[in-house]
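We were asked to recover a plausible sequence for a given structure. The inputs and outputs are reproduced exactly as logged, with field labels preserved.

PROBLEM: sequence recovery
POSITIONS: 298
GIVEN STRUCTURE:
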């Protein structure tokens, strides 16, 4: 006698079917070694350094609030490589220079896009978590002088209070902290995402975004977003030039130090400098809690 399946049974069947589909998709993907290309290394390194500069600017200039860069990293890397491969196709390098085409202009796929995003996030995250915009800079000799410390060579100077982030000190420190964490996080993410299939919001968002880019409609939408991002970036650059021309002597007046709450509050460094990153960071929920927490502390 036919029995109507329960909702739980239907859910189990749909989950199993979805897992089987995912397994077939994973099996059809090319081997991971083919996605570690010379092109990905070069472009990922250049974009990673660019995002590292952005990370340092945000950490030094907006109360240490750095938003997640996984979405813009995937978007910009997709647009750059797509434009790069389009140039190779337009020059017909597959016939004229097959070796160069195979190394630098081969077709761009989803996995290589994920590799590029990983390059960008790994390099830019070290700029923030490594302390270059926070504690390493705060322990430098210049910060020591800015806080009224005794200059070197004068009585009372204590060299243990100063830690200059020179290469011979910073590189071993980053190898111990950053590289060591890779081996732990890789296993933890494999356990929680692949084995246990736990929800992972940032990873899920990046995967959905990258998958949508490699479709006909998604590619057009991604390139449209890059154009909008380029126009906003140029607008911010020209506005910064205007601020630079209208600033006062020693950065004590002008657009860089705008007395929003009056001249009395300006003496206590309550001002606004018209930086666009403050507007963007202010939209984050963490910025609201930071602002509320600074009131009683001040």
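RECOVERED SEQUENCE:
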């Amino acid at each position: 006698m036919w029995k109507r399946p329960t909702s739980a049974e239907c859910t189990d069947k749909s989950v199993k079917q979805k897992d089987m589909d995912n397994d077939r998709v994973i099996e059809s993907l090319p081997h991971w070694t083919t996605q570690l290309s010379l092109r990905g290394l070069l472009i990922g390194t250049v974009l990673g350094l660019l995002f590292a500069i952005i990370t340092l600017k945000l950490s030094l200039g907006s109360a240490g609030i750095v938003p997640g860069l996984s979405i813009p990293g995937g978007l910009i890397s997709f647009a750059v490589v797509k434009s790069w491969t389009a140039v190779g196709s337009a020059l017909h390098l597959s016939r004229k220079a097959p070796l160069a085409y195979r190394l630098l202009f081969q077709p761009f796929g989803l996995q290589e896009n994920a590799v590029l995003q990983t390059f960008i996030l790994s390099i830019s995250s070290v700029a923030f978590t490594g302390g270059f915009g926070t504690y390493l800079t705060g322990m430098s000799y210049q910060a020591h002088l800015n806080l009224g410390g005794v200059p070197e060579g004068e009585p009372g100077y204590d060299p243990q209070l100063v830690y200059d982030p020179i290469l011979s000190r910073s590189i071993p420190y980053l190898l111990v902290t950053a590289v060591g964490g890779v081996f732990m996080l890789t296993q933890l993410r494999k356990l929680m995402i692949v084995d246990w299939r736990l929800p992972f919001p940032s990873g899920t968002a990046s995967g959905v975004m990258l998958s949508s880019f490699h479709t006909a409609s998604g590619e057009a939408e991604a390139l449209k977003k890059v154009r909008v991002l380029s126009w906003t970036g140029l607008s911010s650059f020209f506005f910064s030039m205007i601020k630079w021309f209208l600033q006062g002597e020693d950065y004590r007046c002008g657009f860089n130090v705008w007395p929003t709450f009056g001249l009395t509050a300006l003496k206590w460094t309550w001002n606004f400098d018209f930086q666009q990153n403050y507007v963007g960071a202010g939209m984050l929920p963490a910025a609201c809690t930071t602002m509320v927490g600074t009131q009683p502390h001040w």
